[in-house]
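Troubleshooting: if your tokenizer reports a length mismatch, compare your output against this known-good record of 377 residues.
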Amino acid sequence: MKMGNIQMVDLVGQYKEIKTEIDKAISDVILSAKFINGPQVTEFASKLESYTGAGFVILCANGTDALQVAMMALKFKPGDEIIVPTFTYVATVETIALLGLKPIFVDVDPNTFNIDPSQIEKSITPLTKGIIVVHLFGQAADMEQIMDIAKKNNLKVIEDTAQAIGCEVIFANGRKKQAGTIGDIGTVSFFPSKNLGCYGDGGALFTNDKELSEQIKMICNHGQKQKYIHDEIGVNSRLDTLQAAVLIEKLKKLNEYTLRRQKVANYYDEHLSGIANISIPERNEKSTHVFNQYTLKLHKTDRSAFQDYLKDNGIPTMIYYPLPVHLQKAYLHYGYDAGDYPVAEQLCKEVVSIPIHTQMDDTMLEFITTKIKEYFK
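Known-good structure output:
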């Protein structure tokens, strides 16, 4: 038996819940014809500052631009070494390469999938200038330890928070701060499938440094503070007013969306934890988890056959990621080989993500978990 309409992310269902608000927000922008830098852009930036606790929020065109602008603002120069996990989406490393910097890959924790702080320290050289921390799948890396390492070695820290907006880092003293607001700069993506997604591309940068925020604004605007006066080489990267209007409405629902995702994850945890061939996602006591993805590890299992079985039952899956970045053809010239990062390489063979989104109900979840359990009988 198949259950119809199971999706990895149900954006149509989510839209229908807030259709009235979204339609009005979009209509208001169209009627104003202020498609670039309309008032909704400033309003959304302000509301995002309040939500995250970031000192300054600068909006941009997408999450990849945010990473590039962050490195430009921090004055990294060609040849500088930037430490980055190899188990990540390619955009994190792509921007390093495009700027003529050198990615120094490190391995990740086998349970949380996040960058391993002990591997960071081993990789620091006199050429190292920064660390890009990726908060993968909705859970934050060990930011307290990473910031201690960065401070000791005078390194800048960029937090790639594309998958973890709303996630809270929990410090040893009980203090909490949102992921993306702890390092020198945080970056975020509003790609439609993200926990806070717009209806196209969008991104943002967070910082608590006023001078750095002004530098970021200038770079995003062709390197100009004053129109037609260009102090630095910049880029053209801005959030459209239409997307800002959508995000204002969706930000109101973000906490609720997070709770719904966590409810789905809790259901999966309860019903899949007893299966010998599966490891469910580890919950790190140093971070909350907002579950942009729910990612299993399979053991002694033919992953392709497992995926085909679920597909035959109408259940989609995704592999994030099938190949670590250091083994991607585009990055082989940096000289890394198979076996250099065994944890990441093993994860790429084991991981599989199953549906998680804000529109899932118990009937759907029961069907998915029942089919998974039946496979391993």
